[in-house]
Amino acid sequence: MVPATETVLVVDDEQGILEALADLLREEGYRVLTASHGREALERMAEVKPDLVLTDWMMPVLDGPALIERIQQDPSLRTIPVLGMSAVDVNGLKRLHPGMEFLQKPFDIRALMKLVRRALDANPRLRGG
């Protein structure tokens, strides 16, 4: 179990995936916020600053790339780590966005948890930085 103070925002327009990820992360002890698209994610982030954003890439209203751009433009949000998820070939996305971590859907739960933990461990706000 992890400290319940670590908050993960999960963003996905597929309700089944959103609920499954939220349940899985809660079972691991994380506090979980959810949003069904990028605009809703930004609204959630205005209320509570998560320690990690786990976002789908292709969504209506505001997609993953646009959400990341907004996060990076906001000084109060730009240090929040973001993990991307996509059903398309993530190797191409990794080339377009070097340094960003992506999960290929469908993904292995252990791989997901390892990336979530690594991203949270690298968050300067959680390390006291």
UniProtKB/TrEMBL annotation:
One of its GO terms (biological process) is phosphorelay signal transduction system. The modification 4-aspartylphosphate is found at D56. Residues 7-120 form the Response regulatory domain. It holds the Pfam family Response_reg. SMART domains: REC. Gene3D superfamilies: 3.40.50.2300. Keywords: Phosphoprotein. This is Response regulator. It comes from Corallococcus carmarthensis. The lineage of its organism: Bacteria, Pseudomonadati, Myxococcota, Myxococcia, Myxococcales.
